[in-house]
Write a structure and sequence with these properties.
The protein contains 17 helices and 13 strands. With 462 residues, the protein is α/β, with parallel strands linked by helices. It starts with a helix and ends with a helix.
Length: 462
């Protein structure tokens, strides 16, 4: 981390007066803050000066980025409003409450003549209100979409095409019927959102699409090696400059932008395990499960006989503070081959020689990190884009197993053994290592590298 910071500081000294200033505004959720800060570092190392606007809600640790300028704004959220239990309500409110404080902050930054000239704003695509603010100040806005391209195309088609074709509202969430308009998806792979208000969700998605089309371009934490067909479709649907420069985290040594405190004891525990023997289990920073699901996961892990590193976030099990719902004697029974933490340094875990598989919710950041370390997956999507990503992992790239039904200990046990102990797991590992190598080529002189060079030239042209 210190070496990366020092390299960045040295780069700053070398580039004073050469680059323009870019303002970035992430959505205040872990899965969105992380790639935005990664992008900020990428742009900084290309000679651009960086200012980050952030909300009080889930604010990043600014001391970790001494080479950036930070400006905080009020989000006006009460404790109840800050909940992501209803994701659509949260996002809709965020796009209302932040308008005035964001505009005031941006106006102040633009009026500061002592700073380097501001080239553009880069904001999260979900913060669609920023397009009108940027337009009013005659500032180009580029959007960052933090998920994959295939899921974005599906989301933006929900209010129109997919509703017209009768896919929404989804009548049978377990239907194997193909979604003809979006191969290889089935009805069961279509995104579900945390809301009971379909009209508000459709309005949110319509604004996401229209304000993205009105922007000056799109940046993606993805690359052509992963999503060539989706990129082709995107270019037809969104006729604006598109920059596929990901995976972002591969531009730097592993470092953390985590909002949660990481428990590094898991690394010393992994050091004691055999190569490729451990199943790593983490469902990200938002997913919550009920006690029944928690117990099925616990028994599935125990009965597999495989060593496991399990991330259980505080209050992620409904009705429990942490792991008190575990059966009496459970921890003693699995002693030696089990390590449970509240949060893990995920990139380090996935890069560890002992890690043989990753049981994941298939958030895009986690999926990319698993691909880039050549670790095959067990896919258990929860909501939003995760079901689309899981389908690509298991069916298109064929680098993971898909748990598609209700969590049940025998199914869990079987999936873990298939992934870690059996020939099927070796085949999945071989394929994901091949995919990893293709992504590496893309970053080292291939399509992602060239796309980044184009992005820098584009920003400098404003």
């Amino acid at each position: 981390m210190q070496k990366m910071k020092q390299a960045s500081m040295d780069n700053q000294k070398a580039s004073v007066g050469k680059g323009r200033r870019v303002i970035l505004f992430p959505m205040p959720l872990q899965g969105h803050i992380t790639p935005m800060l990664q992008l900020a570092n990428i742009l900084y190392n290309k000679g651009l000066s960086i200012t980050i606007i952030y909300t009080h809600l889930n604010s990043p640790n600014t001391s970790s980025y001494p080479h950036f300028t930070f400006c905080s704004i009020s989000d006006g959220f009460s404790k109840d409003e800050a909940s992501t239990t209803n994701y659509v309500a949260f996002m809709t409110l965020l796009n209302v409450k932040c308008v005035v404080p964001f505009q005031e902050c941006l106006e102040k930054l633009l009026s500061n003549v002592e700073e380097q000239p501001i080239a553009c704003l880069i904001s999260d695509a979900m913060l669609y209100f920023t397009q009108a603010v940027a337009d009013s100040l005659k500032l180009p806005r580029i959007v960052l979409r933090t998920s994959n391209i295939a899921s974005f195309l599906v989301f933006t088609a929900i209010p129109g095409l997919l509703r017209e074709k009768g896919y929404y509202p989804i009548q049978d969430p377990q239907s194997e019927a193909p979604v003809i308009e979006f191969p290889p998806l089935r009805v069961k792979d279509l995104p579900e959102t945390k809301t009971t208000d379909d009209a508000t969700r459709d309005q949110l998605l319509s604004l996401l699409a229209s304000q993205t089309k009105a922007s000056s371009g799109m940046i993606w934490n993805s690359c052509r090696k992963l999503e060539q067909d989706a990129i082709t479709a995107l270019e037809q649907e969104f006729p604006i400059p598109i920059f596929t420069i990901g995976p972002f985290h591969k531009y730097f040594p592993a470092y953390s932008s985590s909002l949660l405190s990481q428990d590094h004891s898991c690394i010393s525990w992994l050091d004691k395990q055999a190569p490729k023997s451990v199943i790593y289990v983490s469902f990200g920073s938002i997913v919550a499960i009920n006690e029944t699901e928690f117990l099925e996961i616990a028994w599935g892990l125990a009965n597999s006989g495989v060593p496991f590193l399990w991330v259980v976030r505080p209050r992620s099990v409904q009705g429990a503070e942490w792991v008190e719902a575990l059966p009496k004697g459970y921890l003693e029974m699995v002693d030696g081959r089990c390590h449970i933490v509240k949060w893990a340094p995920q990139q380090e875990v996935l890069a560890h020689p002992a890690t043989g598989g990753f049981w994941t919710h298939n958030g895009w950041n986690s999926t990319l990190e698993s691909i880039c370390e050549g670790v095959p997956m067990i896919c258990h999507p929860n909501f939003g884009d995760q079901s689309v990503i899981a389908r690509y992992v298991s069916y298109v790239w064929r680098v993971g197993l898909h748990l598609e039904k209700k969590l049940e200990r025998r199914v869990i046990e079987r999936a873990i053994r298939r992934l870690i102990l059996e020939a099927e797991g070796l085949e999945l590992r071989s394929r994901i290592i091949g995919l990893k190598e293709q992504v590496d080529v893309s970053l080292k002189g291939g399509s992602a590298y060239k796309s980044l060079e184009s992005l820098i030239s584009y920003i400098q042209s404003f």
